[in-house]
Amino acid sequence: MFNDSSSPPHQLFYCPSFSDKMLLYKTTSLNALISPYPTRLHSYNVNGSMSFPTKPSLRLSQSQTPLSRRSPKLTRGGDIRINRNSHKTPNFTVRASNETPPVLHFTSSSNNSKLVLISSAITVTLAVANRVLYKLALVPMKQYPFFLAQFTTFGYVMIYFSILFMRYRAGIVTGEMIGLPKSRFVAIGILEALGVATGMSAAAMLPGPAIPILSQTFLVWQLAFSALLLGRRYSFKQITGCMLVAFGVVVAVASGSSADQMLSGFEFIWPAVMIISSAFQAGASIIKEFIFVDAAKRLKGKSLDIFVVNSFGSGFQALFVLLLLPLLSNLKGIPFAQLPSYMKSGAGCLVNIGRNIPGCNGAPLLPLLYVTMNMAFNVSLLNLVKISSAVVASLAVMLSVPISIYVLSLPLPYLPEGASLSPFFLLGSTILVLGLVLYNVARPVKQASN
């Protein structure tokens, strides 16, 4: 009997006393030795015929060689051959074959596409809820939007690092993840703080409808930085799709306003500053994507936890926002000397428990709902960047813009008046959806090329 005492790949039992000379073939760990794919084994009578399944995993051929003089060999093709030198007993060739590896490859790709699609849908839903709740949160905090912005910026630092600490204690976050180079997070903090500062500067000088239109240059900057920093290449259809998305948002947001006249009377420098603000924010998003790509190499294939990026990114952003706070407060029309009293009044309006402060109806419920939703949206958005790309995440956010405008046009609690939408809104939304379809139809072609 052929046997390996340590871990026998297979055993062959010969029973000469039986008239039918039955041979039983038993495998205990042949799968692990030959192939990562499942195999099927058979027992049969050598004097009779044997039928195989439609897609057999093993093929056994019969020849004549003495059982006592066999020499098993493993061939290049993954075959185990038992050679014999006489014509008395059967010889068997055991052949194991992989069943359908290409199907597994396409299944994995299909699963990843489904995951990206589901994550995108969740991100769009949270983005819409985030925009709507922000509008509702400004009902009680109408006089304190700057306080609300700083409250979320510095509040997220404590919340994110608390979650990171718990995940580290649970073993989800490793020391290698914490030890990633911090220079990338410093760059994220600087770029996002500069994006806030320049954005506020331009917003203070530009008319309202011009701000979301000029902000669509964010996607153009992302495409440029993605190609420059990550080496990504986009097809003509993908670029065209992105441009259609940005143009659709412009048409939907403008909604019949005199877009050709809205920048008249304003110096060219302020639209340029708003475009530069979008460049800062786009650069920060591409660096986040680069961190995930680089971490996969540094962590030897392990997935970087998103709370590492969220925590350190928000921490350095809060640090640089704090350094720019005098400038930011002046841009919002709040002298720095009056900032402490302004922040105190904003905190009182936010809490609004038992005080019934005039103009603060809806607090603290609405502001806290917005903060919670904004945090969930940021986590979902970063997860989408992780599993796809920063450009895909931006397209998902852009899709939420016309949906949010439509929801906000309906009568809502604390906003009962509603609003009417012009035909330009429907036109812009249609262009946006066509751009998304064009971009996503082009993606499989690009991936297959790679």
TrEMBL record:
Residues 55-68 have a biased composition (Polar residues). InterPro entries: CRT-like. It comes from Hevea brasiliensis (Para rubber tree). The chain crosses the membrane at residues 115-134, 146-165, 185-204, 210-231, 238-256, 268-287, 307-328, 365-385, 392-412, 424-442. This is Uncharacterized protein. Keywords: Membrane, Transmembrane, Transmembrane helix, Transport. Residues 55-91 are annotated as: Disordered. It is found in: Membrane. Belongs to the CRT-like transporter family. The lineage of its organism: Eukaryota, Viridiplantae, Streptophyta, Embryophyta, Tracheophyta. It is a multi-pass membrane protein.
